[in-house]
Design goal:
31 strands; Mac-2 Binding Protein; signal; 7-stranded mixed sheet; LDrepeatLR_classA_rpt
């Protein structure tokens, strides 16, 4: 791990000016500074020269993730140095963060002091004008009763992406400059975004109307005209003393955020409990950050459920990220712990031993035709379980279970011979044999799953000739290491973690320069290598020639 100082002697300086600046941007970001201000030389260091021929794109989170010539594989070379931009905000517990990270909805200081005393105002409206459709055009922003344009100084994919997401599109195809969509009128704004902002006015900008542009430099954007999924969004309860209570958080665009308490009542709480598979009757709404303040963005406000909806996002609200709240207004709920006898269309839940609800693992039950029904474990595998976990609001699968591992379920077996791709929103969208068309037995064949939100230890392939093959390496505590104890089951888990369909074969791609970190024994149904049974990090009985390798497919 890099030490927090503004000069580094870690890498040789054989780069063009462009590549050197990108490398230094990565160094400064890894140290917690906003950016590099100057590439310079501080003399010879006293330690070893670890890296040479470093080539970063600027997007990496740490220097060791950049392409390089290998650890310790250096000839004589100059020492690289950099001056980073200083902290803009000093954390109460020490250290600091960039001004871009202050009041961004995420606690970046260890004590989250960068998110205190923040006031969150409704976002400033934007629109696209002069294009061939609503998804493209000149960017205009509404301020103080008039529409104005944006200068194309610093305008690029990052800024255009913020506009497109603010307008509800999935992303941006390309930014436009030089008044490509015609010249606008009114005041001109000058902005510089980092990419995480939810709206254009959150980006760094000069005071409104302060610029050195004219309307021949009006910026535009061409957005991806397919809008993102507007279906049910995952919901979870956080910081409660039991799994049946907590702060309400909803997932949108890969981030978890909270719900504001304006208008929050028992009907809203009932919908949350129902969506989570709990009984809606007796749901208790809790206000004023009863379960603590969240750290993500405030996603919903002015929620007005009737109490009959299946999902929280079915309820009327002010819209995503549209609010006038702060985190002291985060809502919570307390649900009943008993299994509901009847609820509404197509929810999913996990049950242990037929009577006890579980949040993250159990026998899968689907509500259909006023009854809870199970799924047969015939061909039940990881993609099927992944759809179930995402329906329940989890990131991924910890383990796939068959044979009524958590006990037999209720009523009838609804689905069998499941064949999901893993991209479906609900299990009933997957290919299957049809409703109740099976000869399975509850106590022998009910399918189950264990879900998780844990972030998997990163995995990569190295030393191969093509991208989908190589030595399997896993990342732990700042360093990459190798894996051993290898079978096709282990290889399938590694390939799925890397977003391939499966492994075609195992192989040997050299021992590599890193130590063996993990000896695994996977069943083949795990969601990531670190979820497989193993002896412990760094504990193994392997030789170097047993270092794991794989060829992935799909």
């Amino acid at each position: 791990m890099l030490s927090k100082c503004c000069e580094q002697f870690l890498a040789c300086g054989y780069f063009t000016a462009v590549y050197q600046r990108l490398n230094d941007e990565v160094v400064c970001k890894e140290l917690g500074y906003p950016r590099a201000t100057e590439v310079t030389y501080f003399g010879r260091g006293t330690g070893a020269v670890w890296l040479s021929y470093v080539s970063c794109t600027g997007l990496e989170s740490s220097l060791d993730l950049c392409v390089h010539g290998g650890w310790g594989r250096t000839s004589f070379c100059g020492r690289a140095g950099v001056i980073c931009e200083a902290y803009d905000f000093v954390c109460a517990s020490g250290g600091g963060v960039s001004q871009y990270l202050v009041c961004d909805g995420v606690g970046d200081c260890p004590d989250s002091s960068d998110e205190e005393r923040c006031v969150y105002l409704p976002e400033t409206p934007v629109r696209l004008v002069g294009g061939g459709g609503p998804h493209e055009g000149r960017v205009e922003i509404y301020y103080q009763g008039q529409w104005g344009t944006v200068c194309d100084d610093e305008w690029g994919f990052v800024e255009a992406g913020v506009v497109c997401r603010q307008l509800g599109y999935a992303g941006v195809w390309f930014p436009a400059v030089g008044a490509a969509y015609g010249e606008g009128t009114g005041v001109i704004w000058d902005v510089n975004c980092r990419g995480f902002e939810s709206s254009l006015d959150v980006c760094l900008h000069n005071s409104w109307g302060s610029h050195n542009c004219d309307h021949s430099q009006d910026a535009g954007a061409y957005c991806q005209d397919t809008k993102p999924d507007t279906g049910p969004r995952p919901v979870r309860l956080v910081n409660g003393s039991t799994e049946f209570e907590g702060r309400v958080e909803i997932q949108l665009q890969g981030r978890w955020g909270s719900v504001c308490g304006d208008g929050w009542d028992q009907r809203d709480a009932a919908v949350v409990c129902r969506q989570l598979g709990f009984a809606s009757e007796g749901a208790e709404p809790l206000l004023s950050a009863y379960y603590g303040e969240g750290y993500g963005p405030i996603i919903l406000d002015d929620v007005e459920c009737t109490g009959l909806e299946t999902y929280l996002t079915n309820c009327p609200s002010s819209g995503y990220y549209q609010h006038n709240c702060n985190r002291s207004q985060d809502v919570g709920v307390r649900c009943s712990s008993h299994v509901p006898e009847s609820e509404f269309s197509n929810p999913i839940r996990l049950v242990v031993n037929s009577t006890t609800l579980s949040v993250h693992e159990g026998t899968i039950e689907i509500y259909y035709n006023h009854k809870w029904n199970t799924i047969c474990d015939e061909n039940w595998d990881f993609p099927d379980a992944l759809v179930a976990c995402r329906m329940l609001g989890f990131r991924t699968v910890a383990q796939v279970y068959a044979g009524a591992f958590f006990g037999a379920g209720h009523q009838n077996i609804l689905l069998s011979n499941m064949s999901c791709t893993g991209t479906e929103h609900e299990l009933i969208e997957c290919r299957h044999n049809g409703y109740f068309n099976n000869s399975c037995i509850h106590r022998l064949h009910d399918a189950g799953v264990s879900c998780t939100n844990d972030s998997a230890a990163p995995v990569r392939l190295a030393g191969g000739r093509v991208q989908h093959e190589g030595r399997v390496e896993i990342y732990l505590q700042g360093e990459w290491g190798t894996v051993c104890g290898w079978t096709l089951n282990d290889a399938n888990v590694a390939c799925r973690q890397l977003d391939y369909r499966s492994a075609t074969t195992t192989g040997y791609f050299g021992a590599g320069p890193a130590d063996i970190l993990l000896q695994v024994s996977c069943a083949g149904s795990e969601g990531s290598l670190d979820l497989c049974p193993h002896r412990g990090w760094g504990v193994h009985s392997c030789r170097e020639r047993e270092t794991a390798g794989v060829v992935c497919a799909g």
